[in-house]
Amino acid sequence: MLRERGVAWVETASPAAHAQGLAETVAAALREALASRGEARLALSGGRSPIPFLQALACHVLDWEQVKLTLVDERWVSSDQPESNERLLRRHLQPVFDRLHWQPLYQGASPAQDAVTAGAALLKWQPLDVVVLGMGLDGHTASLFPGQPQVSQWLQPGAGALCAATLAADASPRLTLTGRALHSARRQLLAISGEQKLQVLIGALERAPADCPIAAFLRAPLEIHYCPDQA
């Protein structure tokens, strides 16, 4: 069914190959954008799973000064907190991070105001060149969670805002790019590992985005990078 939707499938045999392959794909897409337009716009996911990929990406030789980087989503915490996705990127992209043009989502005003501020800044970045998504076992992607009152609206390519303030399942505040930003990307990548997430993905093909947000992205031009084994 994924093939019928125009979704590409890339499967790798090991977590190391998964990280390296994803990094090569992202680096190639950034080079293409740099060659075409002189700059590249990239949105990355946080969490534990992307760490080997981030480390592999930082090893690629690119004109990093012309790469604009933001997050797909962020916890509403400052970058000195352990759960901060910005802190994660700074640590694992350390060899190149200070050369990038960085756009944080967290600003420290309030979740709602930070969403407005980040959205205004990212308006100049549209369309994005590359987005790397992840997926939770509940089918959420970015910080777009099942059952949120506005999740159907936020998942749409025509969502009014580029960035929204949301709540995670534990009611902690988050900031997330919306479908308006995420669907704009020329290259849309989803990285998942393990049998459990594969089954969630398969189930998402038959579910509504409001109940399983990743379902909103299971169509061309999405490219899924899958590894049967988790790191």
TrEMBL record:
Pathway assignment: Carbohydrate degradation; pentose phosphate pathway; D-ribulose 5-phosphate from D-glucose 6-phosphate (oxidative stage): step 2/3
Which residues belong to the signal peptide in this entry?
none
Query: Which superkingdom heads the taxonomic lineage of this protein's source?
Result: Bacteria
A Pfam family this chain is assigned to:
Glucosamine_iso
BP term (GO), one: pentose-phosphate shunt
Q: Which CDD domains match?
A: 6PGL (cd01400)
Name the top EC class: hydrolase
What catalytic activity does the UniProt entry give for this protein? Answer: 6-phospho-D-glucono-1,5-lactone + H2O = 6-phospho-D-gluconate + H(+)
The UniProt keywords, alphabetically, are: Hydrolase
| Claim: Hydrolase is one of the keywords in the record | yes
Any GO MF annotation of the entry: 6-phosphogluconolactonase activity
- Its Enzyme Commission number(s) read 3.1.1.31
Q: Could you tell me which residue ranges the Glucosamine/galactosamine-6-phosphate isomerase domain spans?
A: 14-217
Query: PANTHER family under this entry?
Result: 6-PHOSPHOGLUCONOLACTONASE
Stated family: Belongs to the glucosamine/galactosamine-6-phosphate isomerase family. 6-phosphogluconolactonase subfamily.
Which protein are we looking at? 6-phosphogluconolactonase
Source species: Halopseudomonas pachastrellae
What gene makes this protein? pgl
